[in-house]
């Protein structure tokens, strides 16, 4: 299951600095209207272009990180996209809305999250997705589990992932196993996630990952020998604040150099309202600024 540090109900970080500036823009742009029920809320994303059922407050809930990740997928992309650790499917559904030429598999280990994703696909608000999205339950860190789920090597054109943000032992994990899994990486860290992406992507395919800015070195190290031509987009709460997140998009099998792109600033000034650039991405389904246009077409 994916993890967004800005909302991290499953862990207690040693510092709150990484969470500053994330809640306001999430509330303003990402969640939209919310309809509560006994076991889930129905939340609108991308200006109402799709809706997702999420667990009630107190469990892991997706927000703006998933939408930023989805916005890193090139406009006009075709073929097959895998959302690894999809949770309830916000990132993958946003990719499907933005890119009508893609089929999207939401790959998730947590059966409750997968069940909510399936219920979301049945909502009338998501009828326009036209059966292009499916849910697959599998542990992405186990190759045999991927094969058993029908996820064969080099079968994907694009992989997106929003992995747990916290390293084991650096935070106090929730006693709730599902909440802990959503926010704390396993003992092997990020490497199994990138290893899975490298296995599943065709040569020349794209991987996109969102991660805390403090973990950029781990992302780049995990890409070494697997992905190249990485483009790094820093995400800042405000123009004068350090980056909170990085979005890294790289090419499978490439040896191209890394590029540091201009950053995305979520808020203008000191108020809670999103910047125009953030609003375009989070409400209007605009592509992530700073990433070069690429012709990522299916084989």
TrEMBL record:
<dbReference type="InterPro" id="IPR050210">
    <property type="entry name" value="tRNA_Adenine-N(6)_MTase"/>
</dbReference>
<protein>
    <submittedName>
        <fullName>tRNA1(Val) A37 N6-methylase TrmN6</fullName>
    </submittedName>
</protein>
<dbReference type="InterPro" id="IPR029063">
    <property type="entry name" value="SAM-dependent_MTases_sf"/>
</dbReference>
<dbReference type="GO" id="GO:0008168">
    <property type="term" value="F:methyltransferase activity"/>
</dbReference>
<keyword id="KW-0949">S-adenosyl-L-methionine</keyword>
<dbReference type="Pfam" id="PF05175">
    <property type="entry name" value="MTS"/>
</dbReference>
<keyword id="KW-0489">Methyltransferase</keyword>
<dbReference type="InterPro" id="IPR007848">
    <property type="entry name" value="Small_mtfrase_dom"/>
</dbReference>
<keyword id="KW-0808">Transferase</keyword>
<feature type="region of interest" description="Disordered">
    <location>
        <begin position="1"/>
        <end position="20"/>
    </location>
</feature>
<dbReference type="GO" id="GO:0032259">
    <property type="term" value="P:methylation"/>
</dbReference>
<feature type="domain" description="Methyltransferase small">
    <location>
        <begin position="68"/>
        <end position="171"/>
    </location>
</feature>
């Amino acid at each position: 299951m994916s993890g967004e540090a800005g909302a991290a109900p499953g862990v207690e970080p040693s510092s709150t600095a990484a969470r500053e500036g994330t809640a306001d823009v999430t509330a303003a742009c990402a969640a939209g209207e919310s309809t509560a029920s006994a076991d889930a809320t129905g939340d609108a994303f991308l200006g109402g272009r799709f809706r997702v059922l999420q667990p009630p407050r107190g469990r892991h809930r997706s927000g703006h990180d998933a939408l930023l990740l989805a916005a890193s997928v090139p406009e006009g992309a075709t073929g097959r996209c895998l959302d690894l650790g999809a949770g309830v499917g916000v990132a993958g559904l946003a990719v499907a809305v933005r890119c009508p030429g893609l089929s999207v598999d939401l790959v998730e280990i947590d059966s409750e999250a997968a069940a909510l994703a399936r219920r979301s696909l049945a909502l009338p608000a998501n009828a326009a997705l036209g059966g292009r999205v499916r849910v697959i339950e599998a542990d992405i860190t186990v190759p045999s589990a991927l094969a058993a789920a029908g996820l064969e090597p080099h079968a994907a054109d694009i992989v997106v992932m929003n992995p747990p943000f916290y390293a084991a032992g650096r935070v106090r994990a929730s006693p709730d196993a599902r909440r802990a899994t959503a926010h704390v990486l396993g003992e092997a860290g990020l490497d199994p996630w990138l290893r899975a992406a490298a296995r599943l992507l065709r040569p020349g395919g794209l991987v996109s990952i969102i991660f805390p800015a403090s973990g950029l070195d781990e992302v780049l190290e995990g890409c070494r020998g697997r992905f190249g031509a990485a483009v790094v987009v820093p995400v800042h709460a405000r123009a004068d604040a350090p980056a909170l997140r990085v979005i890294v998009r790289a090419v499978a099998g490439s040896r191209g150099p890394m590029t540091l792109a201009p950053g995305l600033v979520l808020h203008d000034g000191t108020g809670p309202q999103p910047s125009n650039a953030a609003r375009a991405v989070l409400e209007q389904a605009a592509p992530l600024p700073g990433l070069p246009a690429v012709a990522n077409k299916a084989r």
